[in-house]
């Protein structure tokens, strides 16, 4: 049963990623009436929140946009940085939503940032520990228990990420509507693009939880 759920979540994840890219491509073909680029919209949003210590940079790749709280940078892919469409503005202001969270000391962002160093350390050897633990299960359950503990940390991170991402999107959409940067039709496009982006995080969290349950079932099976 768990295998079926794992396969379904994997398929759902690929479908959501494909849908997100297709939505972004679709909305990228509709220029904003006011002609603003993603970078210009981001700059306006930060200015409206009186945030002056955050830099906006262009990075390589597609949908590689992110906010780095360590050096206070809003990093936008070139399609978003230079794009003058609803998708670009939606993504750019979403990342600025994280900058606003940081400026306002949003607790869930702080928790996620605190988990990042631990995940960076454990993710390097976690798969090895889990595989070794499964092979050593008939001898001792300890390695697999350690691996499950490490994987549980990634699951917690996945679920902590959800309110952070939804809150950033809500802040972005509220600002877009309040500022009048987009028309009602463009706002609808922005909402749709961000909804599909959020769905990828939801599916990732569910997939992580199901995988964790699967590893626990392997451990429990050995004890019977």
Q: Summarize this, please?
A:
With 224 residues, the chain is mainly alpha-helical.
Describe the model:
With 224 residues, this protein is mainly α. It has one domain. Helix content is 74%, strand content 6%. It has a 3-stranded mixed sheet with strand order 1-3-2. It is elongated. The relative contact order is 0.16.
Features:
single chain; 224 residues; mainly alpha; 3-stranded mixed beta sheet; 3 strands; 74% helix; elongated
* Number of beta-strand segments: 3
Q: If strands are numbered along the chain, what order do they take across the biggest sheet?
A: 1-3-2
SS field, number of helical segments: 8
Q: Which structural class fits the helix and strand makeup?
A: mainly alpha
Distance between termini? 19 Å
- Give the count of structural domains: 1
Tell me, briefly, the overall form. Answer: elongated
User: Low-confidence parts lasting 5 or more residues at pLDDT below 50?
Assistant: none
Average pLDDT confidence is 91
**Rg, Å, rounded:** 20 Å
Largest sheet: 3 strands, mixed
Q: Strand-and-helix sequence, N→C? A: HHEEEHHHHHH
Tell me roughly what share of residues is in helical segments: over 70%
Content of β-strand: 5-15%
Question: How is the topology of this model organized?
Answer:
Elements: H1 2-28, H2 38-48, E1 55-59, E2 66-68, E3 73-77, H3 78-82, H4 86-103, H5 107-122, H6 126-135, H7 142-179, H8 184-223
Parallel strand pairs: 1-3
Antiparallel strand pairs: 2-3
